[in-house]
Amino acid sequence: MNPEFLRQCLLYFRDLGLRDLYDRTRPLASVSGVRTPEVQLATDPLPSSSAAPVAQVSIFDELLAAPDPTEDSLEKIRQDIGDCRRCRLHESRTRIVFGDGNPQARIVFVGEGPGAEEDAQGLPFVGRAGQLLTAMIENTAQREGIPLKRADVYICNVVKCRPPENRTPRPDEIETCSPFLFRQLRVIRPKVIVALGATAARALLGAREGVTKLRGKWYRWENIPVMVTYHPSFLLRPTGQAAKREAWEDLKKVFHYAYD
Ligand code: SF4
């Protein structure tokens, strides 16, 4: 549908006093300022539209406010973030960590938020966890015979500023910052999104379960297949060693889906 026509329809309905418009294909967590009930998650091995997470949330204001993805760009999103002070995370950050990689990537990795090294350099996943992620991407791809380097994917986070002491971002911080992530994903429109850890899974899918339960299965975000797997910083912990094999298995599925 023509975006301007859709916009005019929405304005017309709003003028009539209709405020509830539901999107049955999107996770609830993707809508700002709305409480997030449980989302039904797809558990089938390959995504199908009938098994996608179901949203029951009014998206009226967001639809009116969201830029048309065909007119949006990563540069414009970065410009719109500016010297952002929209949430408390700006207080302790050194640099905003926007994202890095191939803007035409087939795969986008979404982490939780920048750590100390990322905050210092302004780039995502450059610390120890980032080095492990690079090794996981490149070694898995090589073993599977897929010509894929880290520079071929795009990497970003749910929140763009480092939470103090690397704490988990709070729900209001995620709500405030995640519209930028969603715009990045709509612009890149990858073949697959990899949610690294529970925060990314919650932001993209509205999922409240832990990664152990979510990982290894396919879900959808705006009709893009999503794989949930462990965050590399978890795999670096002594308790995360056993999960490495599972993470490698998850990446194998992702790479074959994106490149076969
Ligand atoms: S985390 Fe996001 S919303 Fe919060 S200050 Fe940083 S860029 Fe802005």
Residue share in β-strands: 5-15%
| Gyration radius, in Å | 18 Å
CATH superfamily: Uracil-DNA glycosylase-like domain
Classified by CATH, the class is Alpha Beta
Helix coverage percent of residues?
A: 25-40%
Largest sheet features: 6 strands, mixed
Fold-level CATH name: Uracil-DNA Glycosylase, subunit E
Which structural class matches the secondary elements?
alpha/beta
| Overall body shape | globular
Quickly count the domains.
1
Counting DSSP H or I runs of 4 or more residues, the number of helices is: 10
| Total strands | 6
N- and C-termini, Cα separation: 31 Å
Mean model confidence by pLDDT:
85
Oligomer classification: single chain
Low-confidence residue ranges = 23-45, 47-58
How does CATH name the architecture? Answer: 3-Layer(aba) Sandwich
Major sheet: order of its strands?
A: 1-3-2-4-6-5
Bound ligands, each once: iron/sulfur cluster
Give the H and E element order. HHHEEHHEHEHHEEHH
Please, could you describe this protein's structure?
- The model is unreliable at 23-45 and 47-58 (pLDDT under 50).
- The radius of gyration is 18 Å and the shape is globular.
- The protein has a single domain, classed as Uracil-DNA Glycosylase, subunit E (3-Layer(aba) Sandwich).
- The chain is built from ten helices and six strands, in the order H-H-H-E-E-H-H-E-H-E-H-H-E-E-H-H.
- The protein is α/β, with parallel strands linked by helices and 260 residues long.
- Iron/sulfur cluster (SF4) binds at residues 81, 84-87, 89-90, 96, 159-161, 173, 176-177.
